[in-house]
Specification:
Serine Threonine Protein Phosphatase 5, Tetratricopeptide repeat; globular
Length: 656
């Protein structure tokens, strides 16, 4: 007998999302079909109006998990007493979004009159709000812990977002605990972060010299007139300030004074101290280095890219790769390149990045005449055939696609999986049934974070069978980031695309997976719509070309319609660029004008005398470079499933 309050959750198990065949449904419970009212849906509607009493009333008989979904939302909205927060965290310690919930609790914490209770709430965590900070400082002082109160104030003062009133409240609470050095540190951090309004609030608290420094940095950031005079007014003792140098650098970049910007970057790139925040310069550093490379100045490009002074981070990995690439392909210095590619390999862990590091180590070994080392590095890279450079490595070794990618193992059985017993799963099912898939996915992705491979596979199967391929892909990517490859989940074919497409099905699948992750109702900030993320104007042109009705709302409602128009656009690109996936993917992502320009600039990748792998790396836009690589991965895998046993031919796919 199913408990009454669980009926809405298990109704989801019987009701697929759009696009799912009903023969996938495993639980025959006919009495659920008559149920039409969903208590949680009513509660969510009330919650959206912040009618928390109405929301609670709506889920009175829906069971404790449904009630706690509403309580979770209420507490994350900053409602409730400290007792409410403490009780919820004790009941649901494994639910998602608890960091925000704890932050929202700080208003309630500030109302607590017991210092020990306030400090117990925070434990080792730092307050995230002014209310929490002041409450914690007051509690430490009440307990005679002056040093802890001062340390807390000093640390929070540097980074915390403060209105003018909040700033005054913190200053009054701090008294002499905050020193002039603390004020300078806060002002400097605010200027680096571009929080100009808060920076201006700090000006009366710092010395005249720091005021002049701040005014110059603000004027540069805001591109005001008279910046030269303001820079000249900065005292000599502060003239070498890294933040001022960065503001001048950014100003020159915005004004297209590239040579002047490069001059500043070279001057400052002697140490992490002279850069101030090496990570702040990293994106522009890569752009400028690539620009110098395109201008035929490889040594200058290398010097700029390599002097980044970054610790382990994604920016460091990208600049180490770029430094190695320039050294190997443009400077013909494989020894130097190998050093960078090894550093890259030591700083990354995901299959995509590991394969890139190993592939390029192999290329460097090849140029050094180290055949065995090159083969070993290619073999290591080829273990990652869901990654672009892993596929290229496998191609160089003459390998076929891995069997598990060509014929994915049968989808795991989820019906007895441990995750079904979790209240997180029950909450997700209730949210699906209440037509809130975004929060449902959030719960299930959180659930997956600590699960092992077998349960991840079962959870991915669950997502596919219940008609949420978007969740399946997200789970597959989450697993891949941990080194767990679940082929049927990571690269699914969810049955959303019709058979009568204008291009080969594997390409349409690869584009849809990259564009929307198979989310049929996706809407991008730029206005791209649906499965294949079509702009309305493009959709109208393709519908007219196919003789189909123009139905913009259908782009997010009917994935088959969307796929027909998206595939027609891919076919349109093929009329100009032929079968080259490098050019067609670039055109789909950046518009056809971009690859036309890049052909002129870097050569035509369809020609045998142009290295297509280098050509992709020369694409100036990081988003488009990445897009070409990810689409190529998907295309190769989906093609292999249709033509098993064929040799890998990634270079041919790119070249066309």
């Amino acid at each position: 007998m199913i408990r009454p309050y669980l009926l809405p959750a298990f109704a989801f198990l019987l009701t697929p999302l759009p696009g799912l065949a009903t023969d996938a449904l495993p639980l025959p419970v006919p009495e659920l079909a008559a149920q039409t009212r969903d208590p949680l849906a009513e509660a969510l509607a009330a919650a959206s109006l912040r009618d928390w009493d109405g929301a609670k009333t709506a889920v009175t008989e829906a069971g404790p998990v449904a009630a706690d979904v509403i309580e979770w939302m209420r507490l994350r909205a900053g409602e409730g007493t400290l007792t409410d927060y403490e009780a919820f965290l004790q009941r649901r310690p494994d639910w998602p979004g608890l960091a925000l919930l704890r932050n929202r609790a700080e208003t309630a914490v500030a109302r607590s009159i017991t210092p020990s209770r306030v400090l117990a709430w925070f434990g080792p965590r730092s307050p995230a709000s002014v209310e929490g900070l002041l409450a914690a400082v007051k509690a430490h002082r009440a307990m005679g812990q002056q040093d802890q109160a001062t340390a807390l104030l000093s640390a929070a003062w540097t980074e915390m977002r403060l209105s003018a009133l909040d700033q005054q409240a913190v200053l009054e609470a701090a008294g002499p605990a905050l020193t002039p050095r603390d004020h300078e540190a806060r002002l400097d951090a605010l200027l680096w972060d571009g929080r100009n309004g808060e920076a201006r609030q700090m000006l009366p608290l710092v010395s005249e010299g720091w005021q002049k420094l701040a005014e110059a940095r603000l004027a540069l950031r805001e591109e005001r007139e008279g910046v030269d005079g303001l820079i000249s007014a900065v005292p000599a003792a502060l003239a070498a300030d890294p933040g001022l140098a960065f503001a001048r650098f950014e100003w020159r970049m915005k004004k297209s004074r590239t040579e002047g910007a490069i001059e500043i970057l070279r001057e400052r790139s002697t140490s992490s101290e002279t850069l101030g925040r090496p990570e702040a310069w990293a994106r522009r550093r890569a752009v400028l280095a690539r620009g110098l490379l395109r201008e035929g100045k490889p040594r200058e490009a290398y010097a700029l890219a390599a002097a980044h002074h970054l610790n382990r981070s994604s920016a460091q990995a990208d600049l180490e790769f770029l430094s190695g690439f320039i050294a190997l392909r443009a400077m013909k210095d494989p020894k130097t390149a190998l050093t960078h590619f090894r550093t890259l390999g030591e700083s990354v862990s995901t299959p995509i990045s590991v394969a890139r590091a190993e592939y390029w180590q192999a290329r460097a070994h090849e140029d050094l005449g180290q055949t065995e080392e090159a083969k070993a590095a290619l073999t290591r890279a080829a273990r990652h055939q869901t990654a672009y450079y892993g596929l290229l490595a496998a191609e160089k070794l003459g390998l076929q696609m891995e069997d598990t990618l060509v014929s994915p193992p049968p989808l795991a059985d989820w019906k007895g999986a441990p995750f079904l017993a979790s209240s997180v799963t029950e909450a997700a099912l209730l949210l699906y049934n209440a037509n809130d898939p975004a929060n449902a996915r959030r719960f299930l992705l959180h659930l997956a974070e600590e699960r092992e491979a077998a349960e991840l596979a079962a959870l991915g199967t669950f997502a596919l069978e219940k008609g949420d391929p978007h969740l399946a892909v997200l789970l597959g990517k989450q697993a891949a980031a941990r080194g767990i490859i679940l082929p049927g989940i990571y690269f699914p074919d969810p049955g959303l695309l019709p058979n009568d497409l204008a291009v080969e099905r594997p390409l349409a699948l690869a584009i849809a997976r990259r564009e929307s992750e198979f989310r049929a109702d996706a809407v991008s900030p730029a206005g791209a719509l649906g499965l294949m993320q079509l702009m309305p104007g493009t959709a109208k042109l393709m519908a007219t070309k196919l003789g189909l009705p123009v139905d913009i709302p259908a782009l997010t409602r009917d994935p088959a319609y969307n796929a027909k128009l998206g595939s027609a656009y891919l076919a349109h690109l093929a009329e100009e660029f032929g079968p080259s996936i490098a050019l067609r993917a670039a055109g789909y992502n950046a518009g056809p004008g971009r690859p036309r320009a890049w052909i002129t600039q870097f050569g035509d990748p369809r020609r045998a005398d142009v290295d297509v792998i280098d050509w992709v790396e020369h694409v100036p836009f990081e988003e488009t470079r990445t897009y070409i690589m990810r689409v190529t991965e998907g295309l190769a895998i989906y093609q292999a499933r249709l033509t098993p046993g064929a040799p890998l031919a990634i270079t041919s796919l790119l070249r066309g």
